[in-house]
Design brief:
- By secondary structure, this protein is mainly alpha-helical.
- The protein has two domains: about 40 residues; about 130 residues, no CATH class.
- The chain contains four helices and three strands.
- Helix 2 crosses helix 3 and helix 3 runs antiparallel to helix 4.
C-alpha cells in the first residue's frame, strides 16, 4: 500500500473508531437514564402503595367519651387536695410576710418561733405536694393504659380494614408505631432434607 493510501486508511479507521465510541456513549447514557427512570417509577409506585397514618394518641384519648369522664373523675378526686395545698401555701406566704415586717422589732424568741413555723409549713407543703403529684401521675398513667388498650384495638381494626401499612403516634417521644401491617413472607420454602439412604454393604471378593 502506498503511503498516501495508508494515511487515508488510518484516518478512515480512526474516524470509524471515534463514531463507535460516540455511539457507545450515547447507548450507555440512554441505558443509565432508562435505569434511573425505572427506579424512580418503582419508588413512586412503592410510595403510592403505602398508606401511612399519624395521630395524636393522647389527644384522641382525652377527646373520647371515656377519656372526658376520666378527666372529670380526676379533677373531682384531686380538687380537694389542690384546694388544701393552695390554702396552706397562702398561710406560708402570710407567715413569710409577717416575718419580713417584724424581724427587726420582735424578740429573738418570737423570731425563732416564726422561723420554725415557716420551716414546718414549707416542709409539710412540699412533701404533700410531691405525694399528690405522684398519686395523680400514677392515676393518669393507669387511665391512659386502660383507655389506650381499647383505642389500640379500634386502630388495629380500622387500619387493617382500610389497608394502612402503618400508624404512628406523634404524641410520644420518640414516635411510637401503633400499627404495622404484617407483610407476607415471599421467601421460597426451604428444601426438604433428603433422606439418607444406607449404603449397600460391599460385596466380598470371590475366593480363588
Amino acid at each position: 500500500m502506498r503511503p498516501q493510501s495508508a494515511k487515508r486508511e488510518v484516518i478512515r479507521l480512526w474516524s470509524q473508531e471515534t463514531r463507535n465510541l460516540q455511539e457507545l456513549k450515547t447507548v450507555n447514557r440512554k441505558l443509565i437514564l432508562a435505569t434511573v427512570a425505572s427506579l424512580l417509577a418503582a419508588a413512586s409506585a412503592f410510595a403510592q402503595a403505602q398508606k401511612i397514618a399519624v395521630m395524636d394518641m393522647q389527644g384522641a384519648l382525652v377527646n373520647t367519651k371515656d377519656g372526658q369522664k376520666a378527666v372529670t373523675d380526676l379533677r373531682a378526686k384531686y380538687s380537694p387536695k389542690d384546694a388544701d395545698l393552695q390554702k396552706r401555701s397562702q398561710e406560708l406566704q402570710a407567715k413569710q410576710e409577717q416575718y419580713r415586717k417584724t424581724q427587726n422589732t420582735i424578740s429573738e424568741t418570737a423570731k425563732a418561733t416564726l422561723e420554725r413555723e415557716m420551716e414546718a409549713l414549707q416542709r409539710g407543703l412540699q412533701r404533700d405536694a410531691d405525694d399528690a403529684k405522684q398519686d395523680m401521675e400514677a392515676d393518669q398513667q393507669r387511665i391512659l393504659q386502660e383507655l389506650g388498650a381499647k383505642m389500640i384495638q379500634v386502630i388495629n381494626k380500622y387500619a387493617a380494614d382500610n389497608t394502612f401499612t402503618a400508624v404512628f403516634d406523634v404524641s410520644g417521644q420518640p414516635n411510637n408505631i401503633l400499627f404495622a401491617a404484617t407483610a407476607a413472607d415471599t421467601r421460597p420454602p426451604a428444601a426438604a432434607p433428603r433422606p439418607l439412604t444406607p449404603r449397600p454393604p460391599a460385596t466380598p471378593a470371590p475366593k480363588p
